Each structure stands twice: as structure tokens, then as C-alpha cells.
Amino acid sequence: MPDNAQTLNAMNPAGFTVYLSGEIHIDWRQDIAQGVAEAGLNVRLTAPVTDHAASDDCGVTILGMEENKFWHDRKGAGLNAIRTRVLIEEADLVVVRFGDKYKQWNAAFDAGYAAALGKPLIIMHADEHAHALKEVDEAANAVCRSPDQVVAMLGYIMTGALPRFTR
Description:
Layout (H helix, E strand, L loop, with lengths): L4 H7 L4 E7 L5 H12 L3 E4 L5 H12 L5 H22 L2 E5 L7 H12 L4 E4 L9 H6 L2 E3 L2 H13 L8
Parallel strand pairs: 1-2, 1-3, 3-4, 4-5
């Protein structure tokens, strides 16, 4: 990517809003944020609440306790769905990362929602999940393996310039 951040931002003065969905147990979002900053890209990153306890308990904290776990989870899911829908709808592009440890139905749902809205979609996952995610991958505009590849794609999409290297 070009060295001059002013050139990058002049080419895309409004910038891009990118929603980062999926895996919340590792720091992949911070890796993308750091790469975007280092590349001087005019990108606004948004994401779900990544504090697992806060995400799970937001509904009962705000709307009142529930004895039944189903209703406890349902209240939180409803509030989180509002946040997710608004942020995906506002995004210019959606990145969904599928992690190794958990079945991430919410990530698959976010990918499907973004695809249904016609949002450009980048999917990120390890090679061993290629078969399980083949339908999700088919809906994506690009499939990659690392945050560095996401940053390189954002740089190319925003500037038309190829990166000097990818990791």
C-alpha cells in the first residue's frame, strides 16, 4: 500500500465503516485495528459487545432478572440483535471470523444477514473449517485466513493499490 496516508484518505474522504463479527475469545479485532491504523486507512471499525458476560447479562441487567435461563438468554439476545442489526445495516463491508473453539451460529447468522442485505462480505477462518463453512464461503466476496489479509484487502479496496507484502 502507498506510504502516504493523506493520499489514501483523499481517495476515500468519507472512509469505510467495517463491522467485525464473530469470534470473541481472541484479539483478532485489535490486529485489524492496528493494521488499519498502520496503513493509514480511513476505516471506522464496529463490532458486537465482546465482553462475554456483559453480552449474556445485558437483558436481565436492564430489563430485570429471570429465573428461567431461556428467558434470561432471550432478553440478552434481543438487545444484542438490535445492536448487531443496526451496525451491520450501517456498515459498508462486513468481516465475519469463525474461530476454532466454538460453534458460532451467531457468526453464521450475521454472515447470512449481511449477504441478504447485499453487503460486501469477507469471511475469515482456518483451513480445517472450509468444508463446514462452504455455503457461507460461497456467499462471501472473499475468504481469508488472517487479520493481515483483511487489512491488505481493505487497503486494495479503498485505494486500488496492491500491498507490498502480506503475512
